[in-house]
Amino acid sequence: METIRSSSDALLTIINDILDFSKIESGKLELESYPLNLRNCVEESLDFIASQAVTKKIELLYWLDPQIPDEIVGDVTRLRQILINLLNNAVKFTSQGEVFLSATVEKITPQEIPDHQLGLAEALPAPNPQGSSPLQLRFAVKDTGIGIPRDRLQRLFQSFSQVDSSITRKYGGTGLGLAISKHLCEMMQGTIGVESQVGQGSTFWFTILTHATPDPDTSESVIPPLELAGKRLLIVDANTTNCQILTLQTQSWGMFPQSVHSGTEALEQLSQQPDFDLSIV
After folding, report:
1. This prediction's pTM
2. d(CA 137, CA 107)
3. pLDDT by residue (tens digit) across 186-200?
4. What is the CATH number of domain 2-210?
5. 196, 209 in Cβ contact below 8 A?
6. What are the residue ranges of CATH 3.30.565.10 in the chain?
């Protein structure tokens, strides 16, 4: 049954990719523009590939810049499609280690928009009553997988193209996922790229242009307790990325974190600086 299910899922993915590519080539693919909760979008994307990661014992991690608004305007289905494409590839080509998704925000003015993104006025909804400025969001999916040779990076975003034929035989796929993601990014007035080193892993990143919604739903906002501000925190975690995420998150809450990677280091730190208020182990 598991073989039947996985084969059906693979076939459905191929069909959907071909349909999307046909729409893109014919100019019939259109983006929607509605308020969306970015945290929910990211977590739904991670949930989609979580079972694959668990099977391979790969850690899934994510961090969202606290400056990202609770709600932005965009096409949640297509944004999620890009994220799932990149996350799925990262898990597929990683045998051990982790996959880390991050999202950061840059507030820009129309004068700062690059020439190739001058379609912003047509791509974004009309300015809201509060007149919020355009936001450039940058997403990055970093893995500890097999990596990609430098001379083969450019062909990744070409239609029906993969690094080489052995990749298709071993991992499957149509070679359309990244090409579709590239088109979707460009429709969102963004760009996409990759940095990689053979044997160490890859980082696929992309940007989109959007803005905050005028009246966001704050019912799901992450509001830190006021009593955490100013507290000294000791973080103990063997995973460097986890330490980085916890450090950034707690700093945004006004805390003063310090991280170590083992119980031995924690005891040494406590012997030198015993005045920590809290510890995450």
Report:
1. 0.80
2. 9
3. 999 999 999 999 999
4. 3.30.565.10
5. no
6. 2-210
Residues 6+ apart with CB under 8 A from 104: 65, 67, 68, 137, 138
**CA 237 and chain centroid, separation:** 22
The tokens describing 249, both together, are: 């998150």
Residue 97: its H or E element:
none
Class of the domain covering 226-280: alpha beta
DSSP-assigned states of every residue in 160-183: T--S-HHHHHHH---S-HHHHHHH
Asked whether 279 and 234 are in contact (CB, 8 A), the reply is yes
| Contact (CB, 8 A) for 258 and 231 | no
d(CA 199, CA 96): 12
* Residue 42 exposed, middle or buried by CB count within 10 Å (0-12, 13-18, 19+): buried
Residues of the chain with CATH 3.40.50: 226-280
Q: Is the dihedral of CA 54, 56, 57, 63 positive or negative?
A: negative
> For the residues of 37-84, what is the DSSP string, one character each?
EHHHHHHHHHHHHHHHHHHTT-EEEEEE-TTS-SEEEE-HHHHHHHHH
Dump pLDDT digits (tens) for 9-68: 555 666 777 777 677 777 778 899 999 999 999 999 999 999 999 999 999 999 999 999
* Structural contact between residues 164 and 152, judged by C-beta atoms closer than 8 angstroms: yes
Hunting for tokens 């501000």 — which residue is that?
A: 229
Cβ neighbour number for residue 241 with a 10 Å cutoff:
18
